[in-house]
Amino acid sequence: MMIPQHYRRLKRGPQVILPKDIGIIVAYTGVDKNSVCVDFGTGSGWLAVSLAKICRQVTSYDIREDFLKIAERNREIEGLDNLILKKADVTKKIDEKDADIVTIDMPNADKSLKNAYKALRENGYVVGYLPHMEQVKKFVSTLDKNRFRYLETLEIIARDMLVRKEGVRPSTKGVWHTAYLVFAQK
Ligand SMILES: C[S@@+](CC[C@H](N)C(=O)[O-])C[C@H]1O[C@@H](n2cnc3c(N)ncnc32)[C@H](O)[C@@H]1O
C-alpha cells in the first residue's frame, strides 16, 4: 500500500493510523469544517493532523511528552493552528465538552470511554481503533455500560494490484491487518 506524498512528509514515532482507516473514520462520522474533535492517544499525530485539516478544532491527548513532540513537529509541518496538543492521562479527568467526535487509539481504550462520553455532545460519535479482536469485545461491552449506542465494527482491507503487461492481479505484498474500527454514538 502506497503512503501518499502528503503523509510521507510527516514524522513517525509510535504506530500511526494509515490513510485507508483515516478515510473511513472521516466518511462514516461525517466530520466537516464545523466539527470539533477530541483524540485520545496522539502518538505521532497522523490521525489528529488529518482531522485538523478538515475540522474546526482538534484537541489531542497523550501521556508521553516525547510523542507529543513528534506530533508538534507534524503540526508545524502542516501549519495547523486548530490542533491543540495536551499532555494528560485520558482515563483521568479531561476538560472537553460538546465534541462531535472522540477518536481513541491507545492500549486499554475501554478505560477511556467514561471520559469520551462526558466529552461528547448528544449523538456525537466515538471511534475505537483496536488491533485485536479481544480488545474489540471488551470495548463493545464497555460501550454498553457507558450508555453508548453501538453501531458497527469494521476492518478495512486495501489490496494492492499489480498492473503489468503479463497480467493484472493482486500483489502478494502489502499491508493487510492494521486494526478494527468500532463506531458508536452517544
Ligand atoms: C499508537 S499511538 C497513537 C497513534 C496515532 N493515532 C496516530 O495516528 O499517529 C498510541 C498512543 O496512546 C498514548 N496513550 C496510552 N495511554 C494513554 C492514556 N491513558 N492517556 C493518553 N494517551 C495515552 C501512548 O503514549 C501512544 O502515544
In short:
This protein is an alpha/beta fold. It has 6 helices and 9 strands, in the order H-H-E-H-E-H-E-E-H-E-H-E-E-E-E.
Give a written overview of the molecule.
The chain is an alpha/beta fold. The protein has one domain: Vaccinia Virus protein VP39 (Rossmann fold, 3-Layer(aba) Sandwich), CATH 3.40.50. The protein has six helices and nine strands, in the order ααβαβαββαβαββββ. Strands 3-2-1-4-5-9-6 form a seven-stranded mixed sheet, with helices on both faces. Strands 7-8 form a two-stranded antiparallel sheet. 39% of the residues are buried.
List the helices and strands and how they pair.
Layout: H1 5-8, H2 19-29, E1 36-40, H3 46-52, E2 57-62, H4 65-78, E3 83-87, E4 99-104, H5 113-119, E5 120-130, H6 133-145, E6 149-155, E7 161-164, E8 167-170, E9 180-185
Parallel strand pairs: 1-2, 1-4, 2-3, 4-5
Antiparallel strand pairs: 5-9, 6-9, 7-8
The structure holds S-adenosylmethionine.
